[in-house]
């Protein structure tokens, strides 16, 4: 392929996928000096109307993109990192994990209500067992009488349930709304102390063929080492719990001195030297009745192996406290 030929970037067809892939395409074009064209691919997760927990969750948005890479129909692919199975195929390289967006979950509620202002009996929609488990646990602990309702669909569909009055609120990822330019529709940002995000939430993954050394080297310029270390630790925790990405597992690796300013929306909070990374994990039953939540702190990982070890060690502690019994069917 010539050095000036367009690079073909595989993406899901959803508005959100197209928005984030468009942003990545601009960045890839900048570092490679080549035009980038988006190749739209429909995945099983896009066409199935079943709930993610029923169709397995793990990899349903990813397989078709990876198959297109295998067949040489695209040169690289962009995924929401939280959708990636924790096992990386040998023939594909995770070439770049760009800087992470806000990892928090958010509420879009009627009448601009915050979670704690919702009336007793409020119906909150989410397709995520992880969100259900933590929201129900928070509600139990704070006397909120909410009901979590399983839903599917894109951002428009989900917010539509609120606008039509069918639901009082829905839970979404801050990062997705931000990439769509719709962050102003959020009525409440959920602190990570209230709801831990999905492992890898807010981060993107750029994959290409493992034997394409030139492209891997160029894409490496888009990699953010802190984000990669954090998501590697989170996904290592998920893998060690033998849980799929539809399991009720929350995890977040962050840099404690920076976390509060970043949650306040100050992206320039990095003027200090950070030496420690904190990893928090939670797993629970979807009714919120039983939860295992633990955290650990260690030196900021300098290698993938160190990040993996951080995740595995916390998972071992969580399993010792009964985490396995809270996840329903453990993913194989």
- Helix and strand composition category: alpha/beta
Strand order of the largest sheet: 2-1-3-10-4
Low-confidence stretches: 51-58
Tell me the major beta sheet: 5 strands, mixed
Whole-number radius of gyration? 19 Å
- List the total number of helices: 11
The backbone outline, from C-alpha atoms, is globular
The total count of strands amounts to 13
Helical percent range? 25-40%
Report the portion of residues in β strands. 15-25%
Series of H and E elements: EHEHHHEEEEHEHEHEEHHEHEEH
Average pLDDT value? 88
Distance between the termini: 39 Å
Plain-language structure description:
It is a single chain. This protein is of the alpha/beta class. It has helices spanning 15-32, 44-47, 52-55, 63-70, 129-142, 155-163, 174-179, 213-219, 225-240, 256-263, 304-320, and strands spanning 7-12, 36-41, 76-80, 92-96, 105-109, 123-126, 147-150, 169-173, 188-189, 204-209, 249-254, 276-284, 291-299. The strands form 3 sheets. Strands 2-1-3-10-4 form a 5-stranded mixed sheet, sandwiched between helices. It has a 5-stranded mixed sheet with strand order 7-6-8-5-9, with helices on both faces. Helix 9 (225-240) runs parallel beside helix 11 (304-320). The longest helix is centred in the N-terminal third of the chain and has 18 residues, at 15-32. It is globular and about 60 Å long.
